Amino acid sequence: MKKNHIRIIVLFALTFAFLFFFFRSVEWDQVLGYLTGIGIEYLVLLILLVPLNFVFRSVRWKCLLKHEKENVSFYNRFAGNAVGFAVTGLFPGRLGELVKPIYLAQKEGLNKGFVIGTVVVERMFDLFNMCFLLGVFFISRPLYISIFNLEIEKEAYSNLALWGILGIAIGTVILLLSLSLYFFKEKTLKIISFFLKPLSQKWRDQIMGLIDEFIKGLKFFHSVGDVFVYIFWSLVVWLNIAVLYWIWLFAYEIAVPFFYIFPYVFLTMVGASIPTPGMIGGFDYFSKYGLTSLYGVETNLAVGMTLVIHAIQLAVTYVIGYGILWKEGISLFQVKKLGEQSKP
């Protein structure tokens, strides 16, 4: 319990630290004006686009789940995504990443460890796809500069490259570990067991049990065709997110080529990966940084725009996720407890 309290304190300290830098040097009268500066037609369009993220993620998820069960309900896949993101949006520590697979596992009678493994695969491919799209931007950047006369500050360009390299490195390590677990299971488990020796027997057994089940979630690696189909749907997921942000920029009369949105999406992905409740702080700071450094947006406008898009995403997610829970007669704290009980 004490360790849990320390973890929560650290996460909230991170949240307030990022919010401090996000709101620093802000003129509130201007920011408040920008909060209502978005046209109603754009507002409605953005609200309609947010649920598409759950739709595409649900279609993509089927590519992994079919190796355990062929006909997993689309509604349950959609509900799992929505509920998971809603829980992540309210509680610290990205608890929804555990709630999502466990919710689906219970609904469909699937192996819990297997479904948790599929979510780890999802995050790994999310990272790879965003690094790929960032690479496309870097390759095509000279065309943007010559045609649209857009320039990135040297510091921002350097930071983007650094984050991209770091993302590729992390993703590669996770991919290699996953492949090793699937194709060289016994040897890899022995190596992992060796490094877990300092832990108590109880913790070692729980971690090894989860890893053993996670391996079952890697079945799709056995089919090259399934891997390519999954990569395609992963690109669709992130292209949909890019379209959302691209239209949002147009709503504030910031016209940029479509592929120029990818570095901003990558930066917000970095911010969103920080396990604060509702991505608050991390997403906001990196959004503001991206808007000001990539597109030359004035600071007050960047803060106002970020508050609008963040509020839209959270509000739509809450309405859908908690609407599903209300329909099923499940309380918020019941589903929170579901995720907490699954931690090793």
Structure commentary:
- With 344 residues, the chain is mainly α.
- It has one domain (2-340).
- The protein is 78% helix and 0% strand.
- It has helices at residues 2-23, 28-35, 40-65, 74-88, 96-108, 112-148, 154-183, 185-195, 201-216, 224-251, 262-272, 282-295, 299-328, 332-340.
- Helix 2 packs across helix 13 and helix 6 packs antiparallel against helix 7.
Describe the secondary-structure layout.
Blueprint: H1 2-23, H2 28-35, H3 40-65, H4 74-88, H5 96-108, H6 112-148, H7 154-183, H8 185-195, H9 201-216, H10 224-251, H11 262-272, H12 282-295, H13 299-328, H14 332-340
Helix pairs in contact: 1-12, 2-13, 3-4, 3-10, 3-13, 4-5, 4-13, 5-6, 5-14, 6-7, 6-9, 6-10, 6-11, 7-8, 8-9, 11-12, 12-13
The proportion of residues forming helix, as a percent range, comes to over 70%
* Helical segment count: 14
Q: Say how many strands there are.
A: 0
One letter per element, helices H and strands E, the order comes to HHHHHHHHHHHHHH
Overall structural domain count: 1
> Given the helix and strand composition, which structural class is it?
mainly alpha
Broad shape: globular
Give the termini distance in whole angstroms.
Answer: 13 Å
Mean pLDDT: 82
Strand-residue proportion: under 5%
Q: How many strands, what sense, and barrel or not for the largest sheet?
A: none
